[in-house]
Design brief:
The complex is a heterodimer of chains A (283) and B (301). Chain A is an alpha/beta fold. Chain A is 27% helix and 23% strand. In chain A, strand 4 (56-61) and strand 5 form a beta hairpin. In chain B, helix 1 (4-17) packs across helix 8 and helix 8 runs antiparallel to helix 9. The chains are: A alpha/beta (283), B alpha+beta (301).
Chain lengths: 283, 301
Amino acid sequence: MIEFQNVSKTYPNGTHALNNVSLRIDKGEFVFIVGASGAGKSTFLKLIMHEETPTSGEIVINGNKLSKLKRRDIPYLRRHMGIVFQDFRLIEKMTVFDNVAFAMRAVGESTATIKKRVPYVLDLVGLKDKMKNKPSELSGGEQQRVSLARALVNNPEIIVADEPTGNVDPELSHEIIELLNEINSMGTTVLVVTHEHELVREFNQRVITIDKGRVISDNRGSRRYSGYETEDYGDEDYSLSYSEYEEDMDLTDDELTDDYSGYAYDDDEPDNPDVVVVPDDQA
Amino acid sequence: MKGFGYLVKEGFKNVWSNRIMSIASICVLISCLVLTGAAALFSLNVSKMVEEVGESNETIVYIQPGYSQLEAVYVGKEIEKVDNVASAQFYSKEQAFEQYRKTLGDSLFSRIEDRNPLPDSFIVVMHDLSKYEETVAKIQQIEGVDKDTILNRKDFADKLTRISNLVTIISIGVVAALLIISLFIIANTIRATMYSRRFEISIMKSVGATNSFVRMPFLVEGMVIGLISAIIATGALALVYQGVGMVVENAQSMFSFIPFTDVLPYVAVSFAVFGVFVGFCGGFLSIRKYLKMEGNEILGW
């Protein structure tokens, strides 16, 4: 699904953001990317989204080498991904419905499809009754769920969440990750960039730790999703139930690298991306 | 393209949400179109006049002041003897005076009636217009003919043509300058819209909107501005043209203007095509920069 082969990224100002990173994320996985501010997380996400290109090495997404990707094909690559940002990036003057619909309009979906699909996705994130509200009337957690609905609405294969809980009340952070877990259980690959170790511990998923541009640990959690179902968004009443989720807290503190603070040196931008990458069935 | 209707609607919205800048663009584009149209209509009318003159065969020969009417008639006899002259019809200064009075109104002439400043003249018709120059030269030799003031419509037409050419050159320059200004202003208007919509553009790009899709509303915005300008400019030109036409025809009855209704379809269509084209180019130019950037760069995050 996503493969980094000896990827290095050096910015024109000389910053070595990533240094010879090799890793592989398979279809249907749920992966936390952790690292201190400036460790290279943002660069990692930008490379996946093809907003940046590696200085050396190769990135393969769905079997396509990004170095071979033509400029005009970049939009189609991104349609396989849904992105969730830390700051939600919702359009204030639009309703919740229109914010989600916007992502569908941007890829040229018909109004009929939009009218059918958007309520379904909003229902999925538990916001069906807030469809006509403006983002400003919602709590941070709700806004992030709108953002998640927008990322999901085009049915991507990968959800990339860049610090999805960064602007959400701590008690609601759990809820957001839980929702991502739920999405993951429907077969969507989920990539969550975060620095909230509590959450990471709690969910016991695969954790890739980046420090100074290198992957310093890659711990497979015990909750790794193995089965795969095709998401069906027909007329079925599909509601998320948190109770279905089993707490699985096998991961001990030792398995997590907490000691990566104080290395803020590389990225030129705030390092709090909330990106959800959804796997690409349409590839 | 799927979602085309949506994109067009967004383009119209852009024009409205950015109306101050839109109005500025529209005004500049209107000036550009009206000037272009006026210059074109001027040339058209001049060509028409020149054509009419070429067909008519009348040369006015003035008699030197101080000659009595009888002496003038003798001069006329001499003129008729010149080769190639078919006829020379006497046109007295009283007749000329009456003619002017009819055209320009009584009040101006009542006080100078006893001091008629106009000369007597002959309207000369020639057999063969190709020998025009030599015939005029022979007439000029005749005693009593005011040789510096032989006035014929051909001279007049030549002068008009020269003026028309000059106007064409000047208007090409002015229109070119205005065109660049229009383009610049439209591009800036659209850039302003784009700036206020950069957030949406960045989201569109992150969800995988193609460049042509992102571009479309801005092209529509430019084309709408161009089309609105074309419609207003057509109306404005009609008013200007009819106003000028009336004044000129009152003062000078020799030529009639081409009626505006005859040229209206051409004016309207070419304005629309030109306006939409300029708007399109403006939109195209201004979005180029944004399309090269990624979401984070657009927002400066």
